[in-house]
Amino acid sequence: MTTSPRLTILMPCLNEAETIAACIRKAQSFLAASGLSGEILIADNGSTDASVEIAETAGARVVRVAEKGYGGALLGGIRAARGEWIIMGDADDSYDFSALGPFVEALAQGADLVMGNRFAGGIRPGAMPFLHQYLGNPLLSGLARLFFHSDIRDFHCGLRGFRRDAILALDLHTTGMEFASEMIVKATLRGLTIREVPTILYPDGRTRPPHLRTWRDGWRHLRFLLLYSPRWLFFYPGLAMTAVGILLSAFLLPGPRTFANITLDINTLMYACLLTIVGIQAVLFSLFTYVFGANSGMLSRDTLTEKFIERIGLEKGILLGAGAILLGFASSLGALSYWSQNQFGNIDPTHSMRLVIPGAVLFAVGFQILFASFFIGILNTKFK
After folding, report:
1. Of residues 169 and 355, which shows the higher confidence score?
2. Residue ranges covered by each domain of the chain
C-alpha cells in the first residue's frame, strides 16, 4: 500500500464481528484485481464485540470515531481517509465489495459522486423489508427527486463512491441515517457531477437486528428533505391555503350560500379568512427560510426568489403592509358606521361580521407583511 492511496474503501462499523472479515476479504480481492493503490478503512463507532480486533487482523486500518450515529461514523472515516476517492458501504455483507468496478470507472470519468442503485441492480429475496422496498425508499426517493430536481432513483443506497475533497467541501454535519440524504441533496444543490450505477443488495449476514429503525429514521430523512426545501415546506402549501381562503372568502362575502340543505355563512367565512392568514404566514416563512439559508450557504440561490425580494424591498413591503392596515381600518369604520345606524344596540351579525372579519384579516395581514419586510431586511443586513 502506498503512502497516498488512490482509493479508500470505507466501512462504518458498530458490532459487526459476524461479517466484517468477509467484507474486508472482498474489498482486498477487488484492490488486488483492479491494480489500484488502496486502503481498507474501518470507522468504528464504539463496538463492544471483537469487530476491531477482527478488522485489524484481516489487514484493515481502524479509526475510532467518538461521534455516535451512522453519519457520525462516516464523517469521521471520510476525514481520516487517505485516498483521493472513497467508496463507502455497510460492513454487514449486504454489498459485494469485490464488484466495485462501475464505481471506480465512473469516478475515473470525472464523477464527483457515484450512487449505487439497488432497484436497478437487484434486491435479493430477504435483503430489504417489504415496507422499505415498496413504500419507504420509493416514497422518500420520489420526494427528494421532486424537491431537488434530482435524477437519482435510490437516495438511500449505502454503497456509493465519491471524491474525498468534493464531499468534504459540502460541510456535511448530520450524524444519523439522514446523512445519506444530506450528501445527495447538498451535492445536487452545489452542482456536483452525480452518476448512478446498478448494484446488488444481498441479505446481510448478521444474526442480530439491523441498526436501522424504520419509522424513526424514515422521519429523520423526511425532516431533512423538508428543512432543505422551503418551497415545499412553506411556499406551496401556503400559496394553496391563501388561494383557497381568498376564493372562499370572496364567495361568501356578499351573503350566505345554500347548497341543498347546507348553508354556508359567517362561520365558514371566518375559517376561510383564517386559512388566508395562515397561508400568507407560510409564504412569508418560505422567504425567511430562503434568505437565511441562501446567506448562510445552506441553500443555493434562486434567481426568481432573489428578484422578487429585491423588487419588493423594505420600503415597498412597508407600503404594502401599511396599505392593508388602512383597508382594514376602512372596513372597521364601515362596521362602526353600521353599528351607529342602529344606535349602538343589537345588530345583525350576518351583516356586521362581513365587515368586521375582512377588516381583522387585513389588519393581521398588513402587520404580517410590515414586520416581515423589516425581518427580511435584518436577515439580509446581518450577512452582508
Report:
1. 169
2. 7-227, 230-382
- DSSP secondary structure, 19-69, as one string: THHHHHHHHHHHHHHH---EEEEEEES---SSHHHHHHHHT-EEEE--S-S
Global pTM reads 0.78
**For the chain, what is the largest distance between any 2 Cα atoms, rounded to a whole number of angstroms?**
97
Res 33: pLDDT: 96
**φ and ψ at 112, to 5 degrees?**
-85, -35
Higher per-residue confidence, 106 vs 291: 106
Burial of 194 from C-beta contacts in 10 A (0-12 / 13-18 / 19+): buried
CATH class of 7-227: alpha beta
Q: What is the pLDDT of residue 3?
A: 66
Q: How many CB atoms lie within 10 A of CB 384?
A: 5
Mean pLDDT score of the chain: 90
Supply 260's cell numbers. 341543498
Distance CA 239, CA 282 (A): 8
Where do the H-state alpha helices sit in the chain? 20-34, 51-58, 70-80, 101-108, 118-121, 130-131, 137-148, 164-168, 179-189, 214-227, 230, 236-252, 266-296, 303-341, 349-382
SS3 annotation, 287-332? HHHHHHHHHHCCCCCCHHHHHHHHHHHHHHHHHHHHHHHHHHHHHH
Higher pLDDT, 55 or 137: 55
List the one residue out of 218, 212, 232, 225 whose CA is nearest residue 135.
Answer: 218
CB 357 within 8 A of CB 336: no
Q: Rg of the chain's alpha carbons, rounded to an integer? A: 28
